[in-house]
Design goal:
Helix content is 41%, strand content 4%. It has helices at 2-17, 58-70, 86-96, 103-112, 124-127, 151-166, and strands at residues 33-35, 45-47. Helix 2 (58-70) crosses helix 6 (151-166) and helix 3 (86-96) packs across helix 6.
Length: 170
């Protein structure tokens, strides 16, 4: 309950200050703006300005994922070949396109747009526990790790970067 009270105090302080806030509250370490000391208890909020939400239709998302699953590397192998690579898609779509940030809710959204018909359907149990400790939470920064990441992370990086290209995310 304390967390709910703290959040309420933060929102009230923002409303009184006249600051216009759009989008989602996200937990990121890359801080562009920071408001601290909102009340005597030292409650603060961080607002990350680097996560723009894009307006993409379900059809555009589905087509991008479908084409992503058809793409092959220089050796003629699919770049998306494992169910756990849905983690990369999950991260891109939740960060940039307003899709759910909870894996189970994301899976439901993907089923609603027809992911069960794809070569590799979205399955929550196969990507929900993926964590890439050596990569930043901000997916927009992932491309700079492509040459230095371990093999496990690289398979996620390639999918994320390719999907961002297909959706024109810079």
């Amino acid at each position: 309950m304390k967390r709910q009270d703290d959040l309420q105090k933060i929102l009230e302080a923002i409303a009184k200050s006249g600051i216009k806030v759009e989008g989602d509250f996200v937990a990121q370490k890359n801080v562009e703006y920071e408001v601290v000391g909102v009340d005597a208890g030292g409650i603060g909020i961080q607002i990350n300005g680097t996560c723009k939400k894009l307006t993409k239709t379900e059809e555009e998302i589905y087509t991008a994922i479908e084409n992503l699953q058809k793409d092959k590397n220089d050796e003629g192998k699919f770049i998306m070949y494992d169910f756990d690579q849905w983690y990369a898609i999950f991260r891109v779509l939740s960060q940039f396109c307003g899709y759910p940030s909870k894996p189970k809710d994301f899976e439901k959204s993907m089923r609603n747009i027809g992911s069960d018909d794809l070569r590799i359907p979205c399955k929550y149990d196969n990507f929900r526990k993926v964590t890439l400790n050596k990569l930043p939470k901000n997916v927009a920064l992932w491309s700079q790790y492509l040459k230095t990441a371990d093999q496990y992370s690289q398979k996620q990086l390639i999918v994320a970067i390719t999907l961002m290209e297909k959706l024109n995310i810079e």
